[in-house]
């Protein structure tokens, strides 16, 4: 062959080899059984069964199980204080003693009056029985005796109030008086609170009323403990909906043995409306939005079938399917952009992410 024709020959030979290689590649690809386009490689995931919780979130305020400001009902000088600030006390423990000298003297005076009136009544009664005294004198003597007895009882009550006791078990706050101080009736002395359990007050919209019932669980988080969740249960509600906010006031109880929960704290509340223990979940990337509808491709006998689904609860990376799938289904999670309804697919292995 002439040297001038060698480049042309080489080019023709290269083209021929390339064409033969392409034809061999096409011939080697497995044809689709239905005679359509070749199978599309996709990744899939099975439908997962799990528990899904419907919640409504709101805000609330913590309150003591029981709380009262200790006040005196009578005036007097503080003789002694029987507690320390922050002390845990029991019901009927002695808290404060007032100077009782004046009230004791009043009680003794009334006791003498009762004794004198008792003697007088006995004399009038004897004369009346002998018909030597009138009925009016008898009635007056009896009324005076009863009046003096009532005065004696009142003086005894005042004397008893010179010692102030705890009305229930709890923890005392900061005292606001000192020994020797003269206090007036109704003056604040110290706060007593029961905090081994606390109340949670919060409001929810009236539209949730059909789903609200006593015993519902609540979960709260607090700014003071951002990594902790505290749980409790609803035990009471207000009898009517607030006309201005159209919300219902609910009250829950939370155990507080460690004392972390303080009355007055702000709480973020999650009220559990419903728990579905056999909910169907799929990866969120399996969804194919189409207008107002949500579609998925489920695998049936090697083919991807386009299926309309109804969504429920969403959570991180997953979505609940209410209608459209069953627990045995598998859905396409990668490669569905090029899929069409009924196309054959080749399942690719799901490789786990590389460890960092």
* Quaternary organisation of the protein chains: single chain
Q: What is the total domain count?
A: 3
Structural class: alpha+beta
Nearest-integer average pLDDT = 88
Range of strand content: 35-45%
- CATH hierarchy: architecture of the largest domain: Orthogonal Bundle
Helix fraction, binned, reads: 10-25%
Shape: elongated
Largest sheet: 6 strands, antiparallel, barrel
Helix and strand run: HEEEEEHHEEEEEEEEEEEEEE
Number of helices: 3
Gyration radius over CA? 43 Å
Instruction: Give the uncertain stretches in residue-range form.
Output: 18-31
CATH superfamily of the largest domain: Helix hairpin bin
Strand order of the largest sheet: 2-9-12-11-10-13
């Amino acid at each position: 062959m002439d040297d001038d024709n060698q480049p042309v020959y080489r080019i023709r030979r290269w083209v021929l080899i390339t064409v033969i290689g392409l034809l061999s590649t096409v011939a080697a690809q497995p044809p689709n059984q239905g005679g359509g386009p070749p199978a599309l490689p996709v990744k899939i995931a099975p439908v997962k069964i799990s528990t899904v919780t419907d919640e409504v979130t709101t805000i609330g305020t913590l309150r003591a199980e029981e709380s009262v400001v200790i006040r005196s009902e009578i005036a007097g000088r503080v003789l002694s204080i029987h507690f320390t600030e922050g002390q845990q006390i029991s019901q009927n423990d002695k808290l404060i003693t007032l100077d009782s000298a004046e009230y004791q003297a009043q009680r003794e005076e009334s006791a003498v009056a009762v004794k004198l009136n008792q003697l007088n009544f006995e004399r009038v009664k004897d004369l009346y029985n002998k018909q030597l005294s009138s009925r009016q004198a008898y009635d007056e003597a009896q009324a005076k005796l009863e009046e003096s007895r009532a005065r004696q009882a009142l003086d005894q009550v005042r004397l008893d109030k010179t010692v102030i006791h705890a009305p229930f078990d709890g923890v005392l706050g900061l005292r606001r008086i000192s020994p020797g101080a003269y206090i007036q009736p109704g003056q604040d002395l110290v706060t007593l609170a029961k905090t081994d359990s606390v109340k949670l007050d919060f409001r929810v919209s009236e539209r949730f009323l059909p789903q609200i019932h006593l015993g519902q669980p609540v979960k709260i988080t607090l700014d003071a403990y951002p990594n902790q969740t505290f749980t409790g249960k609803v035990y009471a509600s207000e009898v009517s909906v607030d006309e201005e906010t159209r919300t219902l006031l609910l009250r829950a109880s939370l155990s507080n043995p460690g004392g972390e929960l303080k009355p007055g704290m702000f709480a973020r509340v999650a009220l559990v409306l419903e728990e579905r223990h056999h909910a169907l979940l799929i990866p969120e990337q399996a969804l194919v939005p189409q207008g107002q509808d949500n579609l998925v491709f489920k695998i049936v006998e090697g083919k991807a079938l386009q299926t309309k689904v109804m969504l429920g609860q969403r959570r991180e990376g997953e979505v609940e399917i209410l209608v459209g799938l069953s627990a045995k289904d598998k859905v396409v999670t990668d490669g569905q952009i090029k899929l069409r309804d009924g196309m054959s697919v080749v399942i690719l292995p799901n490789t786990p992410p590389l460890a960092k």
